[in-house]
Amino acid sequence: PTWKLEFGTSGDHIGECLENHTIDEAIILCGEMAEKWHRGVDLLKKLEHAFKDNPERLKDIGLAEALGIQFASGHAILRFYALREQLFASDCPAPAAILDDMATIVKAEIIRCQRLIELCKNDSRLGFHSEAEGYKYCPRKLAWRMQMLENLLAEDFVKARQNIADNKLELPPPESCRTYICGNNNIEHCDSFRWQAECGSQQLNFFIECLDQGEPDQLLLALSTANTRYPLFVNLDKSGKLYAANSVKADVSSNADGWRANINIPLDSISREAINTAKLNITRTVNFNEKTETHRWPISSNTPVYRLNLGLYNPQQNGVFVLNQ
Fold it and tell me: How far apart are CA 61 and CA 81, in angstroms?
């Protein structure tokens, strides 16, 4: 529901928009779209003098330019996150050069904001979302965005450059985030369910025990190894119906106290590569006595918000999952 004006942030997991492509493929395709659209806008702008007395046609040309700015910005956002992942990789060969490329993207975004403000002042249609009944962007919001980008250059980039010089560049640990170390035999308790996991050489195994039974009664497990990859989702209900990647398997059994699920995820299916730390979210949605309840790990006081095809998954509410200690 990010189209809604009041929704706010869902974290920075850019991989959510990459269900059918890798980020490298998306960068190539979005870059081609932005470049070709820019060529078309250049052709249209050559016609402005012919329509100097026709404000409606000038607005049409401005609309095309605004769309081109959005396409270019979308391409820049994908590139930024891809570079950030490279920057914090343990084998990054040239972090200072990558940081310079990221700074160049931010500076270009500031220039795009400036131009889009000019276009918005000439055409009040720009940025208006009719279904949401408000503006996704407008001069005021774009000016705020420019300030945030300038703060990024003045603060975060300066700190990152110093950390690179001191050989101390690393991602900060999540704040107050629960961590589970796979294979330590700990059992996590979460209101109406408990779980543990173990990681072998070929697959990852989750053992989840749900207390009591409801109707409906469903588990959602979301596992992500990188912000630039689409999460692996496992949807499973108490009857054993499974919606997940073909390689994921699950067994379900019932008893007087509730039901149990054993979920087996081949390590190849999560593109683990050299990454041993993942992000994890497990949610149980169950109807007890005509009242639907949602319980999850990590436990959070925030009310979950359904997010279209992502369901109740939200990267801001993930826990840290260490595959190998």
Answer: 31
Residue 105 has pLDDT above 90, yes or no: yes
Assess whether the previous peptide bond of 216 is cis (omega < 30° from 0): yes
Interaxial angle between packed helices 157-165 and 95-122, expressed in degrees from 0 to 180 and rounded to the nearest 10: 170
Alpha-carbon span 151 to 137, nearest angstrom: 19
Neighbours of 58 (CB within 10 A): 16
Please list, in sequence order, all residues whose beta carbon lies within 8 angstroms of the beta carbon of residue 51, skipping any fewer than 6 positions away.
Answer: 57, 58, 61
Asked if 2 contacts 306 with a C-beta cutoff of 8 angstroms, the reply is no
Q: What is the pLDDT of residues 186-210, one digit of tens each?
A: 999 998 999 999 988 889 999 999 9
Helices (H), ranges, 12-94: 23-45, 55-87
d(CA 127, CA 63): 10
Mean pLDDT value across residues 145-168:
96
How far is 202 from 184, CA to CA, in rounded Å?
18
Paired sense of beta strands 128-129 and 277-288, if any: unpaired
Alpha-carbon distance values, 264 to 92, 200, 207, 250 (Å): 32, 11, 9, 6
pLDDT in tens, 251-287: 999 988 999 999 999 988 876 555 677 889 999 999 9
Number of Cβ within 10 Å of residue 12's Cβ equals 12
The pLDDT value given to residue 208 = 97
One-letter amino acid of 15: G
